[in-house]
Amino acid sequence: MRADFQSWVAAHQARFEEVLGGLLPRADIAPQRLHEAMRYSVLDGGKRVRPLLAFAAGELTGAEAVRVDVAAAAVELIHAYSLVHDDMPCMDDDVLRRGKPTCHVQYDEATALLVGDSLQTLAFQLLAEHRLNDDAARQLEMVKLLALASGSRGMAGGQAIDLASVGKSLTLPELEFMHIHKTGALIRAAVLLGAQCGSVSAEQLDRLDHFGKLIGLAFQVVDDVLDCEADTATLGKTAGKDADNDKPTYVSLLGIQGARDMAQRLHREALETLAGFGDSAQRLRELADFIVLRKF
Ligand code: GRG
């Protein structure tokens, strides 16, 4: 990572932590235990890749930072809710997330369920409550975009396919379909929401959409490789879960080298989609590099 990019990431992560802290309900407000568990699940952890993508896309389109903050927070709250629910015994049944006990372990299952529900609704509350774009119709489109990316035709649908595919062998197109929905949809939404807080043409949005799809899939391919290669301490979540759970992955289909090659190809194609943007897309390029080169 270049020093300049590293400090951009660190500054945005630190500022965003404050933003999230201010947008989440305070832990001393009733119901205290639920609010405390929501804060536990969102704050102090995670790479914040999706918010960083929103910030980079927002910088590209000249968006006001306070607007992108809200869009980025909405996406991160959806992401945090999905992790809380995914870790529950009825799904992945995991005990470690972001280097801490998972929400249902730290609190209890009913609380974890309600944390996920409450984070999801808070995300949409924020999008309805704060001005994201001067054009109200555009803002409504943004709300719809996040709803589609999160629901049965996006992340939750991808998760359903994931749960149904345990112990089965999927073809490459089937695996791709699952991951474009489960992981890719929210990453794509982060790019598009960040961009739409500013001024962006339909043609530019189309190219950013393509970038988001490619980098979202690359993120998952790298996640599959890391699940095999990295250790639990580095990941902050249990390593080797995919093989243990007999889940089809890019590694099980293509082998480690095949999966790495695929991530490289997606990375290259993602960078190509940004070619026309010049210097304004530099942060997005650096984030694309980070997504494929990351070690955690
Ligand atoms: C429960 C509706 C529902 C969906 C769950 C996101 C998800 C769908 C499951 C998480 C399981 C998983 C390991 C997915 C693969 C990719 C992924 C989303 C990894 C976690 O994202 P990171 O690495 O996490 O950005 P941090 O903690 O850095 O935010």
Strand/helix succession: HHHHEEHHHHHHHHHH
Low-confidence stretches: none
Residue-averaged pLDDT: 96
Which fold name fills CATH's third level, the topology? Answer: Farnesyl Diphosphate Synthase
Overall 3D form: globular
**CA-to-CA gap between the ends?**
14 Å
Number of strands: 2
Q: What can be said about the biggest beta sheet?
A: 2 strands, antiparallel
Q: What is the overall number of helices? A: 14
Architecture, according to CATH? Orthogonal Bundle
Assigned CATH superfamily: Farnesyl Diphosphate Synthase
Strands ordered across the widest β-sheet: 1-2
| Helicity, as a percent range | over 70%
- Rg result: 18 Å
Hetero groups in this structure are: geranylgeranyl diphosphate
Domain tally: 1
CATH class (first level) name: Mainly Alpha
| Strand-residue proportion | under 5%
From the helix content, strand content and strand pairing, which structural class follows?
A: mainly alpha
Condensed summary:
This protein has 296 residues and is an all-alpha fold. It contains 14 helices and two strands. A hairpin with a 2-residue loop joins strand 1 (96-97) and strand 2 (100-101).
Structure description:
Helices cover 72% and strands 1% of the residues. By secondary structure, it is an all-alpha fold. It has one domain: Orthogonal Bundle (Farnesyl Diphosphate Synthase). The chain has a two-stranded antiparallel ribbon. The protein is globular, with a radius of gyration of 18 Å. The two termini are 14 Å apart. Bound molecules: geranylgeranyl diphosphate. The site of geranylgeranyl diphosphate has 16 residues, from helix 4, helix 8, helix 9 and helix 10.
